[in-house]
Amino acid sequence: MPHVMMLKVNPKGKIVSLQGLPSGIKGKRFDEVFEVDGSGSVFKAKLNGEIFTASKIKVDDGYIIVLLPESLHHLIDDFPFGVVVIQDGKIIYANKIVEKFTGYSKKDLYLMDFRELATDEYRDKIQELYEKSLNANEIIKEELKIRKKSGKELFVEVLATKSYYHGQPIILCGVAEITRRKELENLFLGLANQTFTVVYIIQDGKFVFLNDTSVLSGYSVDELYEMNPFDIVHPEDRETIINNYLRRIRGEHVDVPYRFRLITKFGEVKYVDAIATRVMFRGKPAVMGMLIDRTDEMRSQEKLTMYERFFREAKDMFFIIDRKGRFIDVNPRYAEILGYNHSELIGHTSRRIAFEEDLDVLRENFRKVLNGESVRFTFRARCKNGDERVFEVVEWPVFREGEVVGAEGVLRDITDRLRTERELKKTNDLLKTISEINELIFREKDEYALLSKVCRVFSRIRNINSWAWVLEKDKILKATPLAPECTLAERARDGLLKYEECLCPLNTGKSLAIPIVHNSHVFGVLVLCSVGELSNDEIKIFEELGENLGFAITSYRAERDRKIAINLLLDNLEQFEDLADRLRNPVAIISGFIEIKDDIGCERALKEIEKQVERIKGILDDLRLQETLTYFILKGEKLK
C-alpha cells in the first residue's frame, strides 16, 4: 500500500483513529501493525513490504503519526492541509491546498526557490527553519508570513521534518494557513495591551505572553519572561496557585475568581484577583488568565475595618446624624456612658439625651454645621438613669455632591475632668488663703488678734462664716466676740477634726471644726460654718492649718513668758542691788560694835549685834521670795 497515511495513537500506543489505512487495525498497538526501525519523533516504519518515513507529533491525548512512503508513488493532493516537499532548496512537491492558498500553480511552485514564498522580514526565519530541519531528528514548528501570487500576505504554521526520497534527504513540511488565527491573536494582543489588567499565558511553567500591565509586579516584561512565574507569588499562597495551574493543565475545574498575594521586585505585597482558564496556545495546552489589582481595594478595606474597629471600640462617643438631626448611627460607648442602647437612639434627635435648657445651644451649633461649618462646644447630657454628664462636642458637616446631607461628630465625656479642675481650683484657692494666713502668723504676736484676722480672711476670700475659741484652764473662751454657741467647737476640744452637719441655727450644710493643736496640746478651735463639700486633700490642708495655728500660739505664749522672765530677772537684779545696799548697813554696824565692845561692854554690844542680825534675816527672806517667784515663772506657772 504505497500511499500516504495518517493515524492517531493514545499514550499507550494503541491506534484510535486513522486515515488511508484499513479499519481493521484500529484498536491495535502501532508496533503490532508496523515494523518499527528507530525511535524519537522521526523513524522508519514498514507495512506490507512498503517502507515509510514516520513523523510523530505530540498532542494532548497521544500522538499523530504521518507515514510518507519513500517512493512517493501516490501523491497527497487530497490532504486537508498543505504539504510541501523541499530538496536542495527547491520545491519538488506541493499539494492542492498549497496551490489554493498561495495562488501559485504547481508548475510555478516547482520553479521557485522556497525562500521566495516568504515575505522580506521572514526570509531569514524560513532559511533558519530549513537548516534546523536538515540537522535535527525531530519535527520543527514555526509560524511564517508568506506572500501570495496576488501580493496579499498571510500567516502559515509549518511543521517541518527531515525525510528521504530515493535515498536523498528532503524536508517534508505540513503547512496550515493561520491568518485568521493570527489576526485574532493580534487582536487579542492589542486588546490585552490596552487593558488595565494583567493578561498572561503560562505554558510549560513559563510565561509565554505578558501584556504591558504586567509591570505592576515591579519587574520588566523581559525579566518576567526569564523568571519562574510562581516565584512572584507570596510564599503563603504559592502552593495553592501552583496546584490551581496543574489542575487546569489537566483539564480539571477550578473556581474563579480567587484572590492571592504577589511580592513585587521591591518587596511590596500586592493583592490580585485571578481569572484563568485552560487554552491551546500554539498547539499546546496553556493557562491564560487575567490579574486584577485589588491592592488599593484591600488597603481601603483594611482601613475601613480599622476605622470600624476604632468606631466600635473608641473611648469617646461617635455619632452620625442626618440633615434633620436624627441619629443614623452611634458607637457602643453611648450605652456604656449614657445607658441608652443603639436602638433607643437611632431615629431620635439629641433632644432625647439633652436637658431642656441646653437645646438652644444644640440647635445653634447644628445650624452652623448645616451651613458647612465645623463647631466645638460643650453641653450637658442626661443619662438614662437621670445622672448628669458634661460633654465636649466636635461636629462637622457631611457633604454629598456639594450638599450638606448630615453631620458626624465625637463627644468626649469631660465630667470628671471638670470636677477635677474645680477641685484643683478650690485647692489652689485654699492654698492661697493658707498662704495669707501664714503671713499673719509671722506678723501677729497675740493669739486673739491672730484668730480674729484668720476669721476675717475666710469671710473675705471664701465667703465663709468662721469663729474661733481658745482654751484657758479647761475653759473654752471666745476668741472672736460674735461667735455663737457651737456644739461642734465643744466636741473638737478632744483634738480631732470634725466635718459634719452642725446643730447651729446658722448652719446650711456641713461645717468644719479645726482643733488648734501643737505637740498634742489643744489651744483652741477654729470653726468654718457651712463650708460645703470638701475633698480629702482640702481636709488635710485644714488639719495642717490647725497645727500651724497651734505652733503660732505656742510661740506667742513662749515669747510672752520669755519677756516676763526677763523683766523679773531685771527686777531681781535691781532688788539684789538694793539688798546689797541694805546688807552693808547692818554689817557695818555689827563691825562697829565689835570694835567698841570693850568701851560699852560686851552685853550691850551683843544686843546691838542681834538687832542687826534680825535685819539681815528680813532682807534674806525678801530675797528668797523673789527667787521662788522667778522659779515658777520659768516653769510656766503664774503666781496670782
Q: What features would you describe in this structure?
A:
The chain has 640 residues and is of the alpha+beta class. The chain contains 17 helices and 26 strands. Strands 2-1-6-5-4-3 form a six-stranded antiparallel β-sheet. The chain has a five-stranded antiparallel β-sheet with strand order 8-7-11-10-9, sandwiched between helices.
Attribute tags:
26 strands; 640 residues; six-stranded antiparallel β-sheet; five-stranded antiparallel β-sheet; alpha+beta; single chain; rod-shaped
Question: What percentage of the residues does DSSP assign to strands (E)?
Answer: 25-35%
- Poorly predicted sequence stretches spanning 5 or more consecutive residues: none
Largest sheet entry: 6 strands, antiparallel
| Helix/strand class | alpha+beta
Task: Give a quick summary of the entry.
The protein has 17 helices and 26 strands. The protein is α+β, with helices and mostly antiparallel strands and 640 residues long.
Question: What secondary-structure arrangement, pairings included, does this model have?
Answer:
Elements: E1 5-9, E2 15-19, H1 30-33, E3 35-37, E4 42-47, E5 50-59, E6 62-69, E7 82-87, E8 90-94, H2 96-102, H3 106-110, H4 123-135, E9 140-147, E10 153-165, E11 168-177, H5 179-194, E12 198-203, E13 206-210, H6 221-225, H7 235-249, E14 258-263, E15 269-281, E16 284-293, H8 295-313, E17 317-322, E18 327-330, H9 333-337, H10 342-345, H11 359-370, E19 375-382, E20 388-400, E21 403-413, H12 415-443, H13 447-461, E22 465-472, E23 475-478, H14 487-491, E24 498-501, E25 510-518, E26 521-529, H15 536-595, H16 597-600, H17 602-634
Antiparallel strand pairs: 1-2, 1-6, 3-4, 4-5, 5-6, 7-8, 7-11, 9-10, 10-11, 12-13, 12-16, 14-15, 15-16, 17-18, 17-21, 19-20, 20-21, 22-23, 22-26, 24-25, 25-26
